Amino acid sequence: MSIQPLELVNIRYVAGVDVGFPRGRETAHAAIAVLTFPSLEVVDAVTAELPTPFPYVPGLLSFREMPVILAALERLAIWPDVFLVDGHGMAHPRRFGLACHLGVLFNWPSVGCAKSILTGTANAPDELRGSSTPLSDHDDIIGLTLRTRDRVRPVYISVGHRADLPTASELALRCGSGYRLPEPIRQAHRLASGK
């Protein structure tokens, strides 16, 4: 895993990646939405569905989610410059969450953007958009708690691969469109959940 600044000026396409598990079915449903950056227009969107290959084990979700993500990636017509993953990167008990797996596998920039804390602690950031506080585990800063919208619950940003926290959080903010989740992840989530 490599930590380095994202070259935001060179980014043309950002992909949101999400995986859902339809209730009552033993399948995983992945969705990837590719959006232009910084205009955030959807230019490619793909899904894939596979039998769930691995039981639910907290901390090992990559083994459940990566096979169906790989199946969806095969269908992409436009390869993104960076992946925004609905999940964690370094903010993981093993410091290697889904965003790390995806980024390292392809040696491609990736950022984790999760809706809840898996490990570590953080103080709540100020209520205004762009406010952040460190997400720490013991003495290690493993991510950021980032407010993406005024007075709305924060998201948790962490490095996946070939990114660093300052540029990862800037990317998440610049991918905002008035919702809590960055727009690429929001679009992927809508596809993955069938909404």
Indicate the topology:
Blueprint: E1 13-20, E2 27-36, E3 42-51, H1 61-73, E4 82-85, H2 98-106, E5 110-114, E6 132-137, E7 140-146, E8 155-161, H3 165-174, H4 183-193
Parallel strand pairs: 1-4, 4-5
Antiparallel strand pairs: 1-2, 2-3, 5-8, 6-7, 7-8
What keywords describe this structure?
single chain, 195 residues, alpha+beta, archaeoglobus fulgidus dsm 4304 fold, eight-stranded mixed β-sheet, 4 helices, 22% helix, globular
Summarize the structure.
The chain is α+β, with helices and mostly antiparallel strands and 195 residues long. It has helices spanning 61-73, 98-106, 165-174, 183-193, and strands spanning 13-20, 27-36, 42-51, 82-85, 110-114, 132-137, 140-146, 155-161.
Please characterize this protein's 3D structure:
There is one protein chain. This protein is of the alpha+beta class and 195 residues long. The chain has four helices and eight strands; from the N terminus they run βββαβαββββαα. The protein has an eight-stranded mixed β-sheet with strand order 3-2-1-4-5-8-7-6, with helices on both faces. 46% of the residues are buried. Helix 2 (98-106) links the parallel strand 4 and strand 5 (110-114). It has a single domain (8-193), classed as archaeoglobus fulgidus dsm 4304 superfamily (archaeoglobus fulgidus dsm 4304 fold), CATH 3.30.2170.10. Helices cover 22% and strands 29% of the residues.
